[in-house]
Amino acid sequence: MVLKALPGVGAGLARKLTDHFGTEDRVLQLLTDGQTEIIAEVEGVSLKRADSLARSLNGMEEFLATPESVRLHKELVASIATHAVNASTRSRLRNLMPVRDVDSRREIIGQAMKCDFIIEGLRIPSDTEGNYDRVIVSKHPIEELKRFCRVLTPSDQETWKDYKVFKSVTWVGAGGPAQTPEGWLVLPETSSIDMILPEKCVGWFEHNRQSLELLTDLPNGDGFFKYFDEIRMPQLRDLLDEMVNEADAEAIADVRDKLWPLSKSLEKRIHDEVDQSMQNVKLDLSGSDMLEALADAASLQRKLAQQTSDAIEQAIESATDEIASLLSEVGVRCPRTIFKSEWPTKVDRKTLDAIDSQLEELWKTTQSDRLISLARRLAPLKSQCEKALRKLVELDQWLTIGRWAKSVDAIMPEICEHGISIKSGRHLLIDGIPDPVDYGLGMCAGKEDSQSIALLTGANSGGKTTMLELLAHCTILAHMGLPVPAKSAKVGRIESLHVLAKAGGTQSAGALEQTLLQLAQVVSNNNSKLILADELEAITEPGAGARIIAGMLEAAESHEGTCMLLVTHLAPAIIEAAGRELRTDGIEARGLDENLELIVDRTPRRNHLARSTPELIVRRLVERSQGEAKDVFKSILGRF
Known about the structure:
This protein has 640 residues and is an alpha/beta fold. The chain is 48% helix and 11% strand. It has helices at residues 11-21, 24-33, 36-39, 47-58, 67-81, 87-93, 103-112, 193-196, 198-207, 209-215, 236-244, 247-278, 287-295, 297-328, 349-407, 464-479, 509-524, 542-557, 571-578, 614-624, 627-637; strands at residues 135-138, 150-152, 169-172, 184-187, 414-416, 420-425, 437-441, 453-458, 488-492, 496-500, 529-534, 562-567, 584-587, 589-592, 598-600.
């Protein structure tokens, strides 16, 4: 599949999208996932255009042949999407389209309807944005990494030694060091991007960790659960746990944080211990000792030091052992000169700084080694994980549809060759509890409903448009492989659905000509289709409208693959213009209830011309209006 194969995508747009996202596969993946808001970030591509591209990629966009068909499809999908737990699933559902082969969908959705499993915390895998400190050195520039880190190309005169100024380097290709310096990676040119920039690879797993954890613990079983078998990854659990377990680096950082405070506290303790041990020491000096001290002060200092040295050495030894014990936790040796031996004893700052630098380098090395070790094991799994997560979002889509189907009591329809038949069908998108409706048209309907063309008459506000939309809903859902809101249903395969909304009023000559031309093209082509039209006569005056519609019905009836239902208030005039009987069904209003609401049987009566009963509407207005308006409506009512 290439971008240019999508309707309306030329070489220019395909190149613009590919340049923006890096690869054509990336563009196609975004469209498949329903992430059209990201596609719409490209200059010159609107969200409407992006949605259209996604629909074309994901199914038969041409099936929804009119703006009204597109509107009904959009409303249906939005209603289903309210049952989604995860935002990624809602995005994918938005572009769920009718498809030519519905069998595989019907099977998996049928199993999803029997499954109560809910997936939470799932999202489509995504990259993290940001810059990394690592420097990539390659004789062949790696363009796709330039927005993440520095990518340098060595000249012929340069060697790897010229790049030793950088601490984190990936040398790609020949000419690298024989002994790899700390923080470096030396890789062949065939290495994957995930190994060349290991920080990005590990960062991807960290960023998508919550979703990846779902892959490690998917349930086993039959039915819908069997689809988890190909994406379940229990072996990933240990790597994900190791990824967040930074015990070694944390231990080094902890020792480094404790080193200076401990050294200063031990310095004070040495002073306290020596002071305590020297309180009972007495120095006896003879007369000759005193004369010697007068002649040589150093001799007195030697005698004093001799008396105190044992106490000082013991205190220093004990303190040094305590610091050595702390450093041994991370494998660092403690110099025995960390405390100065002369009195008053102090920490040797130079020695302490050297230990701190050693700990810092050890921390960096530990982090680098851990990063590279994780990347070596995670990189081969990344592609598999991406595919598994996208598959899990797809499976969550079917589970969402299953929950929706159970909530609206929908059933999987029977797919047949021609027509439509609904038993106890319910319109999903009206307020309140919908009245169930039975209706059929074409070969799959009962014998009394097998005609492919019918007129639908009846009361204003009686439910004619609602029933038209119900038939459209069932047709769209069935061609998406989804259940329909009915007790039973048969839906014929068609190539396109034409829902024609009620016209807004009499059209100008030019607009009327354009409308008639479009109608003629719809009714005259040989494609299998269902046409659901609402009061087409409104495009012009009633007399001309009846004659135009009669001609359109005759053209539609001449094509075996066409079924057509027309809501009209001009049935007698249309029949007269056609010069023969036409199937005419009616939704009859029987009166007003105590709340002045129409009493209507929503299921049309077959072969029955129902009146529009405007007198019932006028009667309701008489009861609800006041003053002069009430008198006007009383006068009008008297004329019926």
